[in-house]
C-alpha cells in the first residue's frame, strides 16, 4: 500500500510511555536523555531470564473512572488515556460521526488478560474466569473503546502487524482521508505485553537484552555491544485531519503526513529483509513527491538487536546517504511493540516543531559495520523540513512514514 497524503495534517497527539504520561513529559525526558527502563521486581519476574523492561511512567487508573478501568484490559487503558490527550489537543473537532474514524493497531492486544485468566482457570476452575475476559483480550478492543468514547461511526479499524501496527494505522488513516471517505481519523498504536508469557517467548527467541544488572544501559541501538531489545509497554495516538477541514475550524497544525508506504517481505516470519526496507522508504518518499536528498533526519526503528539494526542501517544509508542524522529513541523507552511506530511519528513531529532531535542513548561504541551519522545526544535539526520514521515487524511487515513540518 502506498498512501499519497493529499492535504493530511496532524492536529493532536497523545502518549503513555515509560518516560512520561503525556507527550510533553515524554518529550522532555527524551530531550534530556533519560531512560525509562527499570528492573522488574514483581514476584512473577524473579525466575525469568530477562528482568528489565519499560513500564509506563503514569498510572492510567488516575485518568479513568472505576467503571472504565474495570471494563478494559491494560491495553485499552493506555490507548484511551493517550487518545483523550490527543483529542483534547486537537480541540475535540466537531465532525459528522460518519466522517470520523478510529484506526488503532496492536501487535498482541489483551495478552495480559490471557495470561491472568488462564492462571485463574488453572487454579480455580471455570467459575474463576472473568466475564470480561473476551472483551478484554480482543485486539480490536482499544480501537472499539476509543470509537465509543468519541462517537466515531466512520469505522474502527485495527491493523495487526506486530511492531509495525501503529505506523500502519497512520498509513491507513492517511489513505481513508485522502480517498475522501472521512475527514478526521484518530490513529495510533498500543501494546501492554510486559508479562511472563511475552518476555519468556521473546527470550526463547534470544531477541531480548539480558543486561539485567544494567537496566538503563540495556537498550543500545547501533552500538557494538547491543544484545537485544528491551520489552516495553505504551501507546501513541495522533489526530489526522483533512487540511481544509482543520483550517476551516481554526485548528493548530502540528505537522503533515506527506507520504506513507506499507509493504510485506513475503520471506521469513522473523528475519528482516534489507532490500524491502529500502523499498518501503523509497516508496514513501515517492508518494510524498520527494527524494532522499530532501530528508533532514531519520527516526529509525532500530530496536537494539544485532542483525536488525545492521540491516536497517544499510537500507537507510542507501536511501538518504550516510551523513543524514539518525536516531533511535528506543534506547530510552524500550520497544513499545505495536505502540512504537506512532511514538516514532510523535517524536518526529516534535523534532520538526522544536528544532531538536533527541539522541541515541548508550551509543558508546558505534558498530563499525554501521556507516551512518547516528547522533548520541540531543542535536539541533532546525533546518529540517521533512523526515522519515520507520517501523518493522515480525511477519515481514514494513512501514515508512514521511513527515513534514507544518
Automatic annotation (TrEMBL):
<dbReference type="Pfam" id="PF00109">
    <property type="entry name" value="ketoacyl-synt"/>
</dbReference>
<dbReference type="Pfam" id="PF02801">
    <property type="entry name" value="Ketoacyl-synt_C"/>
</dbReference>
<dbReference type="InterPro" id="IPR018201">
    <property type="entry name" value="Ketoacyl_synth_AS"/>
</dbReference>
<dbReference type="InterPro" id="IPR020841">
    <property type="entry name" value="PKS_Beta-ketoAc_synthase_dom"/>
</dbReference>
<dbReference type="InterPro" id="IPR016039">
    <property type="entry name" value="Thiolase-like"/>
</dbReference>
<keyword id="KW-0808">Transferase</keyword>
<protein>
    <submittedName>
        <fullName>Beta-ketoacyl-[acyl-carrier-protein] synthase family protein</fullName>
        <ecNumber>2.3.1.-</ecNumber>
    </submittedName>
</protein>
<dbReference type="InterPro" id="IPR014030">
    <property type="entry name" value="Ketoacyl_synth_N"/>
</dbReference>
<keyword id="KW-0012">Acyltransferase</keyword>
<dbReference type="InterPro" id="IPR014031">
    <property type="entry name" value="Ketoacyl_synth_C"/>
</dbReference>
<feature type="domain" description="Ketosynthase family 3 (KS3)">
    <location>
        <begin position="5"/>
        <end position="405"/>
    </location>
</feature>
<dbReference type="InterPro" id="IPR000794">
    <property type="entry name" value="Beta-ketoacyl_synthase"/>
</dbReference>
<comment type="similarity">
    <text>Belongs to the thiolase-like superfamily. Beta-ketoacyl-ACP synthases family.</text>
</comment>
<dbReference type="GO" id="GO:0016746">
    <property type="term" value="F:acyltransferase activity"/>
</dbReference>
